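TASK: fixed-backbone design
INPUT:
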C-alpha cells in the first residue's frame, strides 16, 4: 500500500475503506474537494497564534455551590403528576424482559 502524499488524498483508497462505490466522475469531484480542504488547512497552519492563550484565558475556578443540607421536595408533590404510583414510588412500564 502506497502512502498518499501530504497534499493529495487517495479518494479511491478512502472510498474502499468506507465501503463506498464511486464513479470516476465522483472520484474527480471528491479529489478536488479534498484538495481544497487541505489547501485551507495549510493556510491555517501559516497563521501566527503565538500570542493566543491555549485556554482562551478561561477562569478555572471551582464554581460549585456549597454542599449543604436543604429541604427536598415533599413526596406527595413529587408524585402529584405521576400517571401511576404505588407505595410512594413511581410505577413505570417494564422495558426489559
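OUTPUT:
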Amino acid at each position: 500500500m502506497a502512502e498518499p502524499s501530504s497534499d493529495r488524498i487517495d479518494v479511491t483508497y478512502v472510498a474502499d475503506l468506507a465501503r463506498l462505490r464511486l464513479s470516476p466522475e465522483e472520484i474527480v469531484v471528491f479529489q478536488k474537494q479534498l484538495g481544497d480542504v487541505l489547501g485551507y488547512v495549510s493556510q491555517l497552519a501559516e497563521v501566527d497564534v503565538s500570542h493566543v492563550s491555549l485556554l482562551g484565558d478561561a477562569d478555572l475556578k471551582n464554581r460549585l455551590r456549597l454542599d449543604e443540607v436543604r429541604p427536598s421536595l415533599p413526596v406527595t408533590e413529587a408524585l402529584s403528576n405521576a400517571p401511576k404510583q404505588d407505595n410512594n414510588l413511581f410505577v413505570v412500564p417494564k422495558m426489559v424482559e
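COMMENT: The two ends are 49 Å apart (CA to CA).
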